[in-house]
Amino acid sequence: MGRIVMKFGGTSMAGSERIRRVANIVRRQQAGQNGDWHEVAVVVSAMAGETDRLVTFCREANPLYDPAEYDVVVASGEQVTAGLLAMTLQALGCPARSWLGWQLPVHTDSAHAKARIEGLDSDALLASMASGVVAVIPGFQGLSDDGRITTLGRGGSDTSAVAVAAAIGAERCDIYTDVDGVYTTDPRIVAKARKLKFVTYEEMLELASVGSKVLQTRSVSLAMKEGVRVQVLSSFIDDDATPADEIPGTMIVSDHELEGLDMERQLITGIAADKNEAKIILTRVPDRPGAVATIFGPLAAASINVDMIIQNVGRDKGETDVTFTVPGADLLRAQTLLEAQKEAIGFNRIITDAKVAKVSVVGVGMRSHAGVAALMFRSLADRGINIQAISTSEIKISVLIDEDETELAVRVLHSAYELDAVD
Amino acid sequence: MGRIVMKFGGTSMAGSERIRRVANIVRRQQAGQNGDWHEVAVVVSAMAGETDRLVTFCREANPLYDPAEYDVVVASGEQVTAGLLAMTLQALGCPARSWLGWQLPVHTDSAHAKARIEGLDSDALLASMASGVVAVIPGFQGLSDDGRITTLGRGGSDTSAVAVAAAIGAERCDIYTDVDGVYTTDPRIVAKARKLKFVTYEEMLELASVGSKVLQTRSVSLAMKEGVRVQVLSSFIDDDATPADEIPGTMIVSDHELEGLDMERQLITGIAADKNEAKIILTRVPDRPGAVATIFGPLAAASINVDMIIQNVGRDKGETDVTFTVPGADLLRAQTLLEAQKEAIGFNRIITDAKVAKVSVVGVGMRSHAGVAALMFRSLADRGINIQAISTSEIKISVLIDEDETELAVRVLHSAYELDAVD
């Protein structure tokens, strides 16, 4: 007997028929095999589309809505699916009850609409689970110290699931999604993409931050911090499929654990692409101390995340061109802020380009191997793909390219690093 | 300065535009006139149609749903409108916050889906209201002793409003509905129906129980018990109308208060009609002690409310026909139960008729006047309307007639008791 946390997203919870499929998966997980039953906690999202509907109501009510009241409204979506899944499990003969964020409670800070989980009282929960009752927990929601509902920000249910798994010492946190695992790259772009059996927390973080939207980044950070084993698998399986334990998904583990599990690992784990980037070039910025701070200070103050930054040597002495990227959604706001600071910064022109993409190769293996970057640059150059910017981390190399060349670049790199599946 | 509770139903909360109208009414009530502001608590229903949508989900999840989980699901509707109204008030510059049932809390018993309010902690609420913050409270919901969400049953928000008014010692509980008060009868049937300035709790109870669905019966009982003055008025008024205090609705008061307020009162307050009745006749029931118990015992056990009962002298000695009414929705169930008891009861035939209506004249004045019933029977006889059954209470006389004659009967009685408005 072990404890398992299972998390189902909005697509899996969209309507009575799908909730029944989820209930069947949960029931089979609880029953286990050969009498080896599990204590199960299920974390659920709102029905697909419901949170958007509620957010629209909030915007109509007050464009500058109070985030505390926003949380009251949007937390209702997960409350509904939690109650419905508990009922549906009961209909299958599986004892179940819902535990709302304020009931456990899931303690968070008071940063409404983007709260962070601080802890979770698990005594009552564990007692109930030990008696054979499946715990159904709405994701995304918590309780502030002053007794008000909080929410964790969009996609927060993954983080809720990991937090529950950490609090109850679950042996595994299974995240059921509409994909069946983490792939070497987007299978819609590369037909030969392979599903990974294992991926490390760090790799998953890099893959998530560059466009593989399988898991919310915060949930991966939390899992890494708390040492929670996370498995990504598909909720769209046959009702008569083998128990969840045996469906091969992708397990997210620590570096250390990986060494014992996956000796035959490739150098590179995956290729990710992100088209939600926009490039800004400020020309002829004075090349003096503090110039960069006048550019990026106002952007940081406006919570605009700047990613890649390159400072080119200018054509004229004492001047330099500064190139950087921001999320595409923030481009207009960033441009407006920078124009307002034109005199303070002292640039000549602002050039923007939303038609760029960031393509990254990710893998813990590159730490110990030279030549990974060189292969990337050469492979792209051979196909005539121009690199506009480069950024690197310990386990990732990213390049900024023309958006139209995204798919080509991903395919070229997938082959170059020998990630293609062998038929 | 006084305290006012305002309650808005689902039609008034259906969508952002209507919520904005409600917010305007609340803001004007709070501001008052000549600097005489009010402490205001607002109790809200879910958006029209929302509770039905949620109940449908519950039925799909599990036809025999757990009422505790049902409450988790359906309470979300009021949670959403409470948050939205608080935001909308803030957008109008009116400080506001929501207080959910579990936050106050509204203490109830544990009879999920039909819980009864036991009390309400008002300290934090009163402190917040005294500081000028409008309290927005979702109706219909409460908290059981074991910390779970409860709901009060359909239409429970009226009861929530009265309970809040009692707990905070409000000078008035204003129930905003889609009608602008209580009328002498349904204005759709009798064009000359008059709006009543005052009606007593007892009259309102009788009018509610016979088909004037202006207020939930339980809310009127609670108001009577707690001595809460309830006003019924319309939420569909112009945005620029006079403050709510001055809109003439109908005030529900005690007998005692009425005497001082309405000297010129008519003998009869109103005429009500209810088509949701069905008649059952059991023929040739043995006329012996205990026979009636064998009929009504099983119905009571099945929670079927029997209303009018008549025992006709049978044609044959030692036998009698028993006629009674049940809610139309329960007719089939009642019939099945009785057929199963046919031998035990010993009746000959069961005759049912769903095409009947109960028409009632209601008024505290009839207590002190003879001849009220006689006038009713004579007026109906003059128009050839056959009376199938009669029941009376201290302030009400009801007759059962053919459903097709309902409107005619109401018009005849409205004139006979001189209730018609004078042009």
Short description:
2 copies of one chain form a homodimer. In chain A, 35% of the residues lie in helices and 25% in strands. By secondary structure, the first copy, chain A, is of the alpha/beta class.
Describe the structure.
The structure is a homodimer of 423-residue chains. With 423 residues, chain A is an alpha/beta fold. Chain A has 2 domains: 224 residues, 3-Layer(aba) Sandwich (Carbamate kinase), CATH 3.40.1160.10; 147 residues, VC0802-like (2-Layer Sandwich). The first copy, chain A, is 35% helix and 25% strand. Chain A is built from 14 helices and 18 strands. In chain A, the strands form 4 sheets. The first copy, chain A, has an 8-stranded mixed sheet, sandwiched between helices. The two termini of chain A are 39 Å apart. The model of chain A has no long low-confidence stretch (mean pLDDT 90). Chains A and B meet through helix 1, helix 2, helix 3 and helix 4 of A and helix 1, helix 2, helix 3 and helix 4 of B.
